[in-house]
Amino acid sequence: MLLLAVMAGWTAKADEGMWLPSLISQRIGDMQEKGFRLNAEDIYSINQESLKDAVVLFGRGCTGELISSEGLLLTNHHCGYSQIQQHSSVEHDYLKDGFWAMSREEELPNKGLSVSFLERMEDVTDLILKGYEEGMSEDERVAIVKKNSQSLIEEVTKEGKGLRATVEALYYGNQYFMFLYRQYDDVRLVGAPPSSIGKFGGDTDNWMWPRHTGDFSMFRIYADKDNNPAPYSKDNVPYQPKKYFKISTAGVQEGDFTFIYGFPGRTQEYIHSEGVRYIEEIGDPHKIHLRTLRLDIMNRHQSQSQKVRIQYSSKNATVANAWKKWQGEVKGVKKMKTVQTKQEFEKAFDRWAAGGEFDGVIAKIEGLYKELEPYQFATDYYAETVRAIEIANFATSLYSAYKVNKETGEITFDEKKAADLVESFYKDWYLPIDKECFAALMTEFDKNIPEDFKCEYFKKQMKKYVTAEKWAEAIFSKSVFADQDKIEKFLKNQKSLKKSRAALLKDPATEFAAEFAKWYAAEIQPVTSRINQELQLAYRDYMRGQMVYCRTQRVPKAFYPDANLTLRVAYGHIKGYQPADATYYLPSSTIKGIMQKDNPDIFDYNIPQRLRDLYAEKDYGRWADATGEVPVCFIATNHTTGGNSGSPVINANGDLIGLNFDRVWEGTMSDIVFDPEICRNISLDVRYVLFIIDKLADADHLLDEMTFTE
Ligand code: ARG
Ligand code: ASP
User: Fold this and answer.
1) Other CB atoms closer than 10 Å to residue 344's CB: what's the count?
2) pLDDT mean values, one per 10 residues, the chain (710 residues)
3) Residue 76 Cα: closest atom of ligand 2
4) Lower CB density within 10 Å: C or N end of the chain?
5) What is the pTM of this model?
6) Cα torsion angle, 366, 372, 377, 379, sign
7) 434 lines ligand 2 (CB under 6 A)
């Protein structure tokens, strides 16, 4: 009751917020006031088809949308990147040259890729907390939540094929929602532009405006003859969606209403100032530094060999992406003085809370953060150093191909699994990069981790080898994993599984991973998980407290649950921004800007000759805007985060106008604090997508499947 009252009570500060579709009736008035012409039931309904039926969770952390009655799906180039890369080799370089299936037969199946449609979502708080009583311990509560969730999931997934469900805690466990999905596993690659378009501007332009990246790729969902989910089969047929987006080519203008429907991954809008301080002063700066070292090494080797460039393209992009985002985030929270603002809020809250239900919660959280800090630091360091060593991760996964029967002690070996692991690892592994990273990262580990936090194994190795370089030399020359031939021979000639398993365990790469994992599991993880559990508990009160405080003290603040990779609605409008004094950014970019950036000598800005020719001839087909140029990207005030990539950008009529793919650098702190002045999401104008398909790829058969509103 309280939650509902609070959520409906205050309107959000200009366009901030990621709203739950099933509760969108609480926001629809505001949306309509801002220009939206449809109703709540058009966005989310369990009785009729609605826009939600055209949106999918794509892979592990992106969004995609259906744009034809035959299962055609649009998402970002960077979301389909690893699939495009997997099909690429020096001979068929789809990353470089692009890929277009000219017929259904040419569409490429993808191992391990699936998409999920949300069937329905429900507030199940009462059901999940059934049996819980005031005064029970947190452990008891956790057990109850787990048990109730499991039985609910079992019950709802019985209903049909491909169903899976999750129960998610919202507002730190003040509320629980069940999400029921239908998952399709046969998803094929239909098309992707060359990276010189799909990743135009590369990591130089990433997180930046003005932007000219054609960040899209296309897939098709396949189903069995009854339109149900089915594993890949030649006999599968294109999936027929309940709903797909119509495409508007009318164009966009500053001030236009925009609506993003997708799966934002993670935000922390309600955390305590100490949480922000850690991110700003410690966590982000250290992680940035460690990744700078890795990126320097990768970039150097990648620039020297085309093979290595392809091998490390996806890995490099992943490392670089968060690296750059964290830098923007630190700048953003500094500029916003978020720590200070939060401290002031906390002081006022604390005074108000005295003697009441929320008395002491601030002090409790502060104490826990203090205790957590060194352990959090070790956790971050472990993740960004030890866990970044490729050979060690590979050794660990290969070792897990051996299974020991607990009762009989008998050992079995999964040959198929091992062969798959070997194949995919060596395809994209370059020893010198991994080895140099090892040396650089372990040197930093030695410098920055306090002596009493280092494990015995680490100290012993450093004593023995003196420098991390020498240690690296030893591991990478002795490990059987450093040489594909050696490991393949080893795996082929196993006489005794017991002996070979034991030998692999002693291998220096396996040993490295295992010793650190042991240390982490024994010394670090138990402490962080205990403190985090207590924090979670304190946050549950603090979250509720913030709501009550803001309502009763008339502090205007809108509450929406933090992102957790569940379907959300974010609405706003197209708008430029002022990144710095005397500078104003217009909200849309055009093909002219691509030509201005075009430079054959700079890898990130070297466009295909075909695009230059089309531009020279102004051969734009029906895709030019009123000024006669092809629009490329636009920015708007929608509140988005990682996971929203690939999300449909929808206009006031519910039609598709673009594809979300990024945010502006000055606004990346929006995962912690949203500033309506400069937080902008970046989208690809759908007309650029259509132009590329039509004119550059000559794949206009795909256009025939689509429905245009003008
Ligand atoms: N910054 C966008 C997002 O967070 C796009 C990332 C594409 N990757 C890259 N390294 N350019 O995902
Ligand atoms: N580029 C991000 C993504 O991949 C979106 C963002 O962080 O704004 O989801």
Assistant:
1) 12
2) 48 79 96 97 97 97 98 98 89 93 97 97 98 91 96 94 97 97 98 97 96 98 98 98 97 96 98 98 98 98 93 93 97 97 98 97 98 98 98 96 94 93 95 98 98 97 98 98 96 93 96 98 97 95 97 92 98 96 97 97 93 98 95 98 98 98 97 96 98 97 95
3) 4
4) N
5) 0.93
6) negative
7) no
